[in-house]
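Re: the request from the purification team.
They wanted to know what the chain is likely to look like in 3D before they choose a buffer screen. I agreed to run a prediction and write the result into the notebook, where they can find it.
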Amino acid sequence: MKKILFSIIFLAFSGFASDELHELQVGFGYNQVSFDEKETSIEFDDNDLKRPAESGSLSVISLNASYGLINFTNQTLFVNGVFPLINSGDENYYQGSVSIKHYFKNLNTIKNYDFPDGNLTISPRLRYYLGLETGIAYMVYTTTNAKKDDTSFLLRALGGASYMFTQKMGVDVEAGYGRATGSITSSSLINGSLSLVLFI
């Protein structure tokens, strides 16, 4: 027992674990996007009259998926995808990104320690986190005269909490706010998600 306690203390200070599981999240999200067209992107109509820049918004219920690619001491690097399920008319929203989440107090993932006398598994129960996300967003929207699309660079701040019902299964709630800039629009994004968490 003394050997195990000594090994735990040593590993805690050294920051190394023998094995870590990766986190998979799959769930549903709500995305509210408000956009403004840039004046430089406005085209002329058939009568050589410049069409006015337009503003608008769209909302999409999405399928969200995230995978924890790399685990650090209190942070995890995720790759993320957002795919539309229910939208308003012809409008759509897609997103591909990477995010880094910093977890407070508790572990960010399950850790397995191996000892000569056996092994020890430490798993988080309740986790709180803040993070940053960057990536590419693709938006399809409609104006008064046309259906348009734009690809934007996205930067988003996020926060959330996860609760594990079992050692490897739980639920995650997250909310965030971001800004995106594309070739013809600039936009703001407010979104939230509810996801199933699996450690694999």
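For the purification team: The CA atoms of residues 107 and 124 lie 6 Å apart.
Please add any questions underneath this entry.
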